[in-house]
Design goal:
Helices cover 43% and strands 16% of the residues. With 303 residues, it is an alpha/beta fold. The protein folds into three domains: 2-85 and 263-283, Rossmann fold, CATH 3.40.50.10800; 90-171, NadA-like (Rossmann fold, 3-Layer(aba) Sandwich); 175-259, 3-Layer(aba) Sandwich (Rossmann fold), CATH 3.40.50. Helix 6 (118-122) links the parallel strand 5 (109-113) and strand 6 (126-128). The protein binds 1,3-dihydroxyacetonephosphate and iron/sulfur cluster (SF4).
């Protein structure tokens, strides 16, 4: 504990020295969320990365999030304290594979989930996150839309649009594991609770839930809802933020096994080391960053 306080103080001092802002995703471990300037979902963190004036951004999350920040702010130093934190779903599509796939549907637009590499974004038309995916698809003039890489998000979008949605067959290894049986079991244990799930869940889990939200959407809903109890169908790191933002509400995980190991790779020691060494630094070469920036900014222009 004494050690933890000392590391926290060192981080705060270095943060001043480096003119740094610490951004943390809702799935980060409690101590990292506590030290962050902004905790949020992918869309909120992308908007923050674009608008902050700090010279340095410390991104506590996974690689595609830090890449997005580096693309949006090429003049800033973007650090990813856990340099090996990746998103296995983002790795389920490469730019080469996507180019071959889209050549089969010349009339289609390509929507890249923010959980993709910079290279994949660079060969897409627009980005989306779980918070704005339907709005993004509806904003397009095309009536056929390829959605990469998450098949579950693609099928979720298809519920709200008359456009033809062509899914890429990727998935999140954490959300794919939830089952309708998890929903039945937890509802039996907590009959008064509302079930909130993420759009990365399988269609049958979405059918069994009460509401579908991005991670921050879940927090906003839980705080504003008259219900006192919730079953939360996403990565369990979000429970910490829920307990801080609405301590009077009782939130149960849909499954205690819903842990994204990559999101858990960041700790205070790594945040401190990153600020001290100004490494691991995320750099995206301009030939990829420039087209990827257009794709991300096109999404950010949608309100
Ligand atoms: P959010 O954008 O809802 O925070 O989701 C990011 C993510 O990686 C979900 O698994
Ligand atoms: Fe990727 Fe799933 Fe982890 Fe989110 S929870 S970072 S989608 S593996």
């Amino acid at each position: 504990m004494v050690e933890e306080i000392a590391v926290r103080e060192k981080i705060l001092a270095l943060k001043e020295e480096r003119d740094a802002a610490i951004l943390a995703h809702n799935y980060q471990i409690d101590e990292v969320q506590e030290i962050a300037d902004i905790v949020g979902d992918s869309l909120e963190l992308a908007r923050a990365a674009a608008s902050l004036d700090n010279a340095t951004i410390v991104f506590c999350g996974v690689d595609f999030m830090a890449e997005t920040a580096a693309i949006l702010s090429p003049e800033k130093t973007v650090l990813l304290p856990a340099g090996d934190a990746c998103c296995p779903m983002a790795e389920m599509v490469t730019a080469g594979e996507l180019l071959v796939f889209r050549s089969k549907y010349p009339e289609a637009a390509v929507v890249a989930y923010v959980n993709t590499s910079a290279e994949v974004k660079a060969v897409s038309d627009i980005c989306c996150t779980s918070a704005n995916a339907v709005k993004v698809v509806e904003s397009l003039p095309e009536t056929t839309v390829i959605v990469v890489p998450d098949r579950n998000l693609a099928r979720y979008i298809a519920r709200f649009t008359t456009k033809e949605i062509i899914p890429w067959e990727g998935y999140c290894i954490v959300h794919e594991r939830f089952t309708p049986e998890d929903v039945r079991r937890e509802r039996a244990l907590h009959p008064a609770a509302e079930v909130l799930v993420h759009p990365e869940c399988r269609p049958e889990v979405i059918d069994a839930a009460d509401h579908v939200f991005s991670t921050s959407g879940m927090i906003r809903h839980a705080c504003a809802s008259p219900s006192a109890e919730f079953i939360i169908g996403t990565e369990i790191g979000i429970l910490h933020r829920l307990s801080r933002q609405c301590p009077e509400k009782c939130c149960h995980p849909l499954s205690p096994r819903a842990i994204c190991i990559n999101m858990k790779k960041t700790d205070l020691a790594k945040v401190h080391a990153a600020l001290e060494r100004m490494e691991p630094r995320i750099r995206v070469p301009p030939r990829i960053a420039d087209p990827a920036r257009r794709v991300i900014e096109r999404m950010l222009a949608i309100r």
